[in-house]
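Self-study notes.
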Amino acid sequence: MLIYKNHYLRPELVGVSDFHLRERLFSSKLRWTFSCLPACMNALDLSGTKRLQSLVKIGHKGFRDTKLSSQLPQLMDSDLMIEENTEKYNHHAYEIAMDALSSLISRKKRGDSSVVGGKYKKLERMLMYIKILGLEEHISDLKIIHVAGTKGKGSTCTFCEAILRECGFKTGLFTSPHLIDVRERFRLDGSFRELSIVIPYSLALAHRVDISEEKFLYYFWECWHQLKENITDDLPMPPLFQFLTVLALKIFACEKVDVAIIEVGLGGTTDSTNVIKDPVVCGVSPLGMDHMEALGNTLGQIASHKAGIFKPQVPAFTVPQLSEAMDVLHEKADALKVPLEVVPPLDRKKLNGLQLSLSGDHQFTNAGLAVALCKSWLQTTGNWEKLFQHANLENNMPEAFLRGLSTARLSGRAQVVYDTSLTSSDKSGVIGSSSGDLTFYLDGAHSPESMEACARWFSSAVKEGENQLSISSLCPPFQTVGEICSNDHVQPVKNNSDKISKQILLFNCMDVRDPQILLATLVNTCATSGTYFSKAIFVPSISTYNKITSGSSAIPLDVPSKDLSWQFNLHKVWEKIIHGKENLCESFEMEIPESIQPHTFMHDDVSNCGPTDGRFSCSAVVSSLPLTINWLRDYIKENPSLRIQVLVTGSLHLVGDVLKLLQI
């Protein structure tokens, strides 16, 4: 276990190495040393008094939400400042910011139409927001890598960030969505998130976000206040993703990053990030059928949207695509005189024995694209020869590239997390367990193509053996089998090869998805590798589409009653796939009540379960995710001879909720 304490890079106080948000907001004696651009300098408050006034203004005229407005005077109360500790204050201030962000959500769920008032189109509004923040010139100075795609664009961007950081550049990375905390979207130099809670080492590795709460709040309120003061009936506050996009551009400009890697949110042509007019290089990751309600019902239409990020004569790279998509990409590139190059998957031999830090064979495609993008960026900016003019790279990649590819981290994509709550150490320091083993395999796959890749990865991962799986989740990829990381020390691990493995599916997806396609793809792909699920559990997510919470916010363990009709639909689809339509009673519904014992449901394998009277089926609906996690833990404690391998997939919301529960 590791304890992470806050540390700060910039801004800093003159003569003070560590400071707190409360002091920075309210002391009138503070001075700033901040190497920032003029536009950012104009945004800075040089006294705590002005910052306080800004926050009070926000509280009194910035929100229509009376509950949110009423919190601010309480926050400003002097007695509160004196008596409450900094940690509690910081948390309260951050939660208010999350409420403010939530007020920008214009849709209750995906698939709903987003209604934004005013007379301007999205990109017109974006340009106006940028002008209000004084960022026009500074965005053009950013040296940007812009990446679109259906699958793998986040992984590609993450590889790019790690590679260029290892080359010695100050990096900024903007990705979406976040899983636990919105600050995951903004990464500076790839450092760990400053955490004040005790978490397993595995989760610390996974959640790499470098913007502290204090720095995030500073930039957030500056953007919020400037935009709020300039809104009109024709130009309302930006919806959530547009706000986060301009916030990212402001952060990267003010922090003077050497390179900004920007992941497209949705599509490309009309995406909020497409206010970027002069990127250094563009990339398009693998394309597939997703977001058809916005991008079109054919692969060609989707490809046309993705190619919308191409800029005249700016080099672009893509990976092998289906002909329908590739033809459109080439057509768009030719029209803009864009030199478009198709990059093959990375050759494993070029890794010199190292492993990609992101698991799955599909990551070689993303890694190959990232390598091409980084090399092009270095060449275009004149840095390639400076860094590698004396290196022998005829058949090899630079060492910095290898370090980046083997250390990049992206949470919730082909991620393995060993449940450390069940582990213990004996007198000799050897880590073992008096119970069974519980391992979570997390992948936010939600399209047919990504589900197929997820199934191949999971089937391969569960066969690698428990010792190696513990290492992949708990340690950097260069650790040897039979060791486990704990508090930055290497300790031996007991061999648990005699345990019996069971694979469990924990699934949910949005109701705009086709569960018949997703689940059938998962089952069939796993079956081709000899992997079969003993049970499937369908559970609603904790997080909601219209509410943003912080990573440290409390998780409600007593979840109020929810409509489980969608989960029962998933349950029926699963049973039809496993048993066949002719064997399924349409009226059959199986819900696990809180009082039932885990072994009652888990005992039988697929061959012994069926929707017959008096027997449990191969799947069930559980009303609460916290209950499900505790339920699995109880079961594994009672069965020390078992190794339960849980695949969590179908929704990044579900993956994020599980990660948040595991970090408690």
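Second protein, same conventions, sequence then structure:
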Amino acid sequence: MITISESDNWEICSSSGMKYGQFVDWEKIDPEPAKKYQQILKSGHQQLKRMGREGFWAISHTLRAKAYYHIIHNINSRAVTPNRDVYYDLAKKLFGEQKVMGTLLPLFLSRYCLNKAGMNSVKKILICLGSYFPDMSYCPILPALVSLILHFSEDEAECFYSVSRLICYKDPNKRYIDQTFLTYRASCMTFGDLANRCCRGIRKLIASSHQNLFEFYSDWIMWLFADLPFTYAIRVLDVYLLEGFKVLFRLVATPVYFFKMRFLFWPDYSDVEDFRTDMKRFVQSVARHCTVEKLLERAFQIPIATRNELNLLFNANKDALMQKGVSTHQKRQTVESVDLNSFSSSVVTETEMRVIWAWIPERFALFNPVRLFHIAEDGRDLSSLYKRVEGHEPIVLIIKTMEEEVFGAFLSMDLMERRNHDSQGLTYFGTGECFVFTLRPSMERYQRAMVNIMTRIASPQQHRDGSSSASQLANREVCQLTKTSGQNIVCCLCDFRVIFSGGDGGHALCLCDNLEEGNSELCDTFSSNPLCKGHFQIQSLEVWGIQNSIYLSRSFHSR
């Protein structure tokens, strides 16, 4: 373990930093911070995480400065980090003896309690970082991080060194700083996916108002580092330095949750002209809604994916952005949004399709919907549905009943997977991203609160003996895929009917081979109620894919 050298130079004091009191031994007046600092030095990483969450070093400015020094200098960076001498050389080369006055800083930094000399130092450090890391082309949170860490640094060189260690940290499962527009937007999308799980309802709210959901989530990290009050931002930094990017996803989900709760008491949200601006104002005034302790408490109660799953999701989102033409080297650009102005369907309205597209994973929602199957054009035949749909991933199945009920399911995998398993029993397949939903008479999405991109093969299961109508219908062999956290996820397919299911907990959706009728019941996998009144007659049915989905069925059928 690296410990702080020349500890006698680090006075644990309660002074405000003013020059008076410099001859006082503050440890004798208030020995508690000194004792806490010794505890910090003796603590392992897990203990430090708990301390950070509890505000262990928040009692003293200098104690927090020493804690940050200890934490940052123990970050195991995999790259060579520039030291203090590098900063002095860069500053001399770039500025000489002149002060930097011309560079503009973001307006939000005025809330970070820095004087003119401090703001000038922030400019110098940012310019030096830009010079030393030329590949870092887009990093909106950098001015905030420099400003916050400067509060607790001995001088500019130490702040430069500390921030450089965060920039150089290369472990993909514990990132600190996005350095390109591509990775920044991939992180925005990753948060959007997580918010879709833990802040249910907010996406439907924004999509129903025809506002840009993608742009709404693009501000997520700035809510924490630019819009939160200063005392809240410092507590965010306490845990961020120890836990990396993952903890930011937790922390930002809390104000989004409280923002959504407002609309439970204000159902008429039609006069909200811009949810993005409204959210920004809400975060700035978050102290009116919860204390920083309550925000942290709530954040660490939120179930979230593992670091490995988050990394998988981040990389999948990054790949999707690259398919949209976003490159690593461009400094900034907008991402083309989905165009539903020319959307046409006999089952759902444009607004309803916007809601569905708000529910599906971000990497798919980047692309326009494409209709793959419609019974009015392709016939009431399950084999025809397979022929039209196989090779596309993902798909959205939407049904309208004779009772004018509208509901459906999102399947994250290609239906061709049903051919890949040789089993005499039922086999389910899919991932934790699959879900079922209703649109009419009410809008609701049913999905387990998990993120699971990797598809894991589950052993075949014989069809359960049960009395439900869906169970009585299914009597021929099918094939299976994927178990997640002890629950069978999602979709069961057979030769003459398709069953969107959760395994032994009931079938969320069951369709007959002639696509004339079906059934829906309670389903444990999705924690879903019946999607309709139970047994239903099909008035219309459509299957939708996405514009960039990989189409393999031609090559498959040609073999």
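Instructor comment on the second fold: The radius of gyration is 27 Å.
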